Amino acid sequence: MTTAAGEGGTAGGPTATPPDGPIRFDGQVAVVTGAGRGLGRAHALELAGRGAAVVVNDVDADAADRVVAEAAAAGGRAVASHHSVADPDQAPAVVATALATFDRLDVLVHNAGIVSHGWFEDLTLDQIDRVIDTDLRSAFLVAQPAWRAMKAQRYGRVVLTGSASGMLGHQGTANYAAAKAGLFGLTRALAFEGAPHGIGVNMVLPMARTTIADGDPIPDFERHRSAAVPERASGVVAGRSGVDVNAAVVAFLASRQCTLNGEALDVCFGRCARLFVGLTQGWLADDPTAVSPESLASHLDVVRRTDGYRIPSSLFDEMGAVAARLVP
């Protein structure tokens, strides 16, 4: 799945070749969810500034309208959508707004999300449900109608918003981490499904100062952060925690020039890096019927040894690699 969907459904490999000119979205239409402030606002304005017609979606109607006005003042085209992507009755209207207003949809940047922090044993069912609904289930609700439009035109780009909290983990965010990790699985699945139809699907894992956690701090976060980032570096990283670099990464992933598919790009203090799931070569048992907990324990060093790891493109790639070891 490290190959990408090219226009018209042709699969192509990832490219390290810089684009010939500026990345533009002229004639394209983008939906950005959760675009009223913070990261979503930056994504919407970046795309609009590069020629896209943008549907600015946010349940905060005033915030969405302000972003639309900003885009227009800068010479861009935008329209607001105040629908809730977490509501099954409203989410399809976000995409319908794009199709009714601009008659097509090329890009979906699903950025909408909430947090509700707490120690794992204290999380209520309401906290779990609200975060899963807004951060994970909403991706299905808004991406499905977008997917149908993209398949019909045999082109599209989907950028889902993950989090290092989900892929790397820390305390106090079990509900949020589970939702964001689920989006990584969705990214991989949709990348495989979309490739034959010219649809590329990738994930951004942003890090920036935003208002998402205002009034809802992560338990014990500052102690862990202080231990990880020494005082001498705090000023430097603070100056590298804006939203702009994240918007640039999203614009690339949303572009025709991007041939990545099923990948996750992590942003941290101005550094962009690929986050991936890899498999070690592992222990291949001579007789699988004789595997026991004891034999696994005795081979655990081989199971965990990371030299010679693979990054499977799909489940089938993993199956084929193991089969090739059994029957060279």
Give a written overview of the molecule.
The chain has 328 residues and is an alpha/beta fold. It folds into two domains: 4-275, 3-Layer(aba) Sandwich (Rossmann fold), CATH 3.40.50.720; 288-326, no CATH class. Helices cover 43% and strands 14% of the residues. It is built from twelve helices and ten strands. The strands form two sheets. Strands 5-4-3-6-7-8-9-10 form an eight-stranded mixed beta sheet, sandwiched between helices. A two-stranded antiparallel sheet has the order 1-2. β3, α1 (38-49) and β4 form a beta-alpha-beta unit. It starts with a strand and ends with a helix.
Feature tags:
328 residues, alpha/beta, two-stranded antiparallel sheet, 12 helices, 43% helix, 14% strand
What is the total domain count? Answer: 2
For the largest beta sheet, what order do the strands appear in spatially? 5-4-3-6-7-8-9-10
Radius of gyration: 21 Å
The level-1 CATH class of the largest domain = Alpha Beta
Kindly report how far apart the N and C termini lie: 23 Å
The fold-level CATH name of the largest domain is: Rossmann fold
List SSEs in N-to-C order: EEEHEHEHEHEHHEHHHEEHHH
Write down how many β-strands occur, each being a DSSP E stretch of 2 or more residues.
10
Q: Report the CATH superfamily of the largest domain.
A: NAD(P)-binding Rossmann-like Domain
| Helix amount | 40-55%
Q: Name the structural class.
A: alpha/beta
Instruction: List the total number of helices.
Output: 12
Main β-sheet: number of strands, strand sense, barrel status?
Answer: 8 strands, mixed
Proportion of beta-strand residues: 5-15%
Shape-level CATH architecture of the largest domain: 3-Layer(aba) Sandwich
User: Taking all residues together, what is the mean pLDDT?
Assistant: 90
Shape: globular
Uncertain parts: 1-13
